[in-house]
Amino acid sequence: MYVLFALVLLSTFLCLIWDAVGMVSPFYYNMLMGAVFTCFALLHGSKYVGNKSIIVLALVTATVSFIMEYTGVKTGMIYGEYHYGAVLGPKALDTVPWLIPLSWFMFMYVSTLTVDAAFEDRYAGPGTIFLFAILDSTAMTALDVLIDPLWVTR
After folding, report:
1. How many distinct structural domains can be found in the chain?
2. Whole-structure pTM value
């Protein structure tokens, strides 16, 4: 776990350096980090929640996020008008890089783990699921707000 944390810090640091000198992170770097982080989430999730649950989470998250991103790129609805450059790799249906749905899965997994660790079975009751959903979506949005500026191309 500490190795992953160090890798996340290193990758973020490298992106900040590239941004500071007016560069974007290289394509191969983005693909490598996307693969490493996705594999980690799948492997950790298989131990933490089980194979079936992590695969379902990955498929549902990737599918829903792709549909939302595709709709956003094509119509400007949901997130406003935007497009993806080439730095994030090949695009599905010539709109959304394959890395984006994987990233949403990674965001979802990390956010869920974080909120789950904060709960530690302390809060049990009818409102727990709603509180968890609010906190999880807030954590996921915060993570996206922190990471998105690192992936914006000039």
Report:
1. 1
2. 0.71
